[in-house]
Amino acid sequence: MEGEMARIGLVAHDDKKDDLCRWAEAHRDKLARHQLWGTGTTGSRVMEATGLEVGLLKSGPLGGDQQLGAMICEGRLDVLVFFIDPLSAQPHDVDVKALTRLATLYDVPLANNKSTADAVLAAI
Fold first, then answer.
1. Which residues belong to the signal peptide in this entry (predicted)?
2. What is the C-alpha separation between 51 and 63, in angstroms, rounded?
């Protein structure tokens, strides 16, 4: 996949959205070479922060996590960047677990924090 356009899903829990936006700003030039998809608020915030085009899905709790999961199952997502907040309970935790399970099952690179997102982005 190196050098090719990748389809990247972007999602972050509420307390991690600022971190994901800062990460996207720092990597704006590289992300601009790829197709980006994001759950509602996260995708909108990344677009505002970077000026990049992000295909917007539903908000995570309203089905956006499941939409990303469907994209993984259908072979329409190459990378998932999901900044997870490990210290806060999430009301839609079952959706989060399903999404991360699908990324694992379908062998889609999954970055849960800045360090892994840096490594995954460097590899594509």
1. none
2. 25
39 annotated as a binding-site residue? yes
Residue from 65, 85, 93, 95 carrying the catalytic annotation: 65
DSSP code of residue 70? H
User: Is residue 115 marked as binding?
Assistant: no
Please write the tens of the pLDDT for every residue from 2-22: 668 999 999 999 999 999 999
Helix (H) or strand (E) holding 87: none
What integer pLDDT is reported at residue 96 of this predicted model? 86
What Rg value do the Cα atoms of the chain yield, rounded? 13
CA–CA dist 28, 102 (Å, integer) = 27
